[in-house]
Amino acid sequence: MVFLACFSLQVMAEEIAGLYRGLVPVSDQSEESRDAGVRDALAQVLIKLTGNSTIMQSPRVQPFLTNPSAFVSGVGFRNLPALDNSDIDADERIGLDVSFDRRAVDQLIRQAELPVLPSNRPKFLVWIIRDDAVEGRDFVSPETAKAVVDSFDRAMKERGMPYMLPNFDLQDQLSLSVNEAWSLRADLIDPASERYDTDGWIALRFYTTSSGEVRGAWLYQSSGRRQLNDFRAAPGEAFMADAVGSLVDSLTRAYTYIPQLDTSQMLVKIAGVDSFADYQAVLAQLNKLELVDSVELFAVQGDQLTLAIEAEAGADLLRSALVRSRRFDSQPQLEGSNQLNFNWTGN
To answer: Which of 45, 96, 105, 226 can bridge 37 by disulfide, Cβ–Cβ 3.0-4.6 Å?
Structure first.
């Protein structure tokens, strides 16, 4: 169920590192385990890059999976820490650490026409609420439920999604009660979240039934919309990976784009470029964006640059990507114009 909301997009995106690196558990250091691990690590990387947990099921991906090692730039084994509630020693858990060639993987994504989730990603405030049969309802924090927080953190890191938890200080307590958060009261969660400089917020609640099944729901507000969904999972903390999977799949749709083989060119006017250092910084920032294919200087007038930019996505996604970088302030655009207008902030 989707609700439209009227609020301004915040600008606290984070540049995420390690998107082309996968770390997966393997049974041993044999060649067979290595080959299987490379395939699993490639799946992990493609899921992070596309924002879609089911991307490996796409028929467009299958032709590229006959030789996953062709995309590898480095590989090694290392010990993994024990999982929560695990009965095996950390030294017995072996991980395959795989680095993939960025150019080769990007070419795969473009040839297969897969969605791209840019590396400058939105950051979310996350309220997690647990209803325990013995202890009652409470907000989940590292102090109240470390295992749950650790499980959530692993799931978000595997998807390459930045987030923060509330402070749970007096101001939070006065702004939002546990019962209000449990009821997913968006009208109360929203103002309680405003003190945090994030691109949106997530509320995730869960409880365990008498049979051990975990049931819950999540609600988020991001990029001008709210979305609500529920989930069920088998007993154990592993439920968090499933909950985060469906959550991230949903909220990243507003930030992804399909690369176009025929890029579209648009003019981008940037004011406030006062020096050659500013000019270099503008070009560096633009060239960091995955959706930008090329940048050419079109005109200079005073402190204003006009650039001809070829982008693999439309003007709206380019505008939002520049705003999320926190170095460009969007200015009004003439209706029907293919020109985007910004002020350079350089922050």
So the answer is: 96
* Contact yes or no for 74/48 (Cβ under 8 A): no
Q: Is residue 230 domain-shared with residue 272, that is, in the same domain? A: no
Which residues of the chain register pLDDT less than 70? Answer: 1-14, 82-92, 236-237, 260-264, 334-338, 347
Q: What pTM was computed for the model? A: 0.75
Which residue segment(s) compose the domain that 312 sits in?
264-344
Domain boundary among 223, 254, 285: 254
Query: In whole angstroms, what is the distance from residue 289 CA to residue 23 CA?
Result: 25
Cβ atoms of 124 and 220 closer than 8 Å: yes
Q: State whether 245 and 293 are in the same domain.
A: no
**CB-based burial label for 305 (10 Å; 0-12, 13-18, 19+):** buried
What length is written for the chain? 347
From CA 126, how far away is CA 124, in angstroms rounded?
A: 6
Q: Do residues 96 and 36 both lie within one domain? A: yes
The answer to whether residue 61 is domain-embedded is: yes
Q: What is the C-alpha separation between 313 and 113, in angstroms, rounded?
A: 12
List beta partners, residue 229: 218
98 Cα distance to chain centroid: 20
- Give pLDDT tens digits for 252-265: 988 888 876 555 67
DSSP string, 195-236: TS--SEEEEEEEEE-TTS-EEEEEEEEETTEEEEEEEEE-SS
CB 75 within 8 A of CB 95: no
Cα separation of 36 and 176, whole Å?
A: 47
End-to-end CA distance of the chain, in Å? 37
Which amino acid, one-letter code, is at 16? I
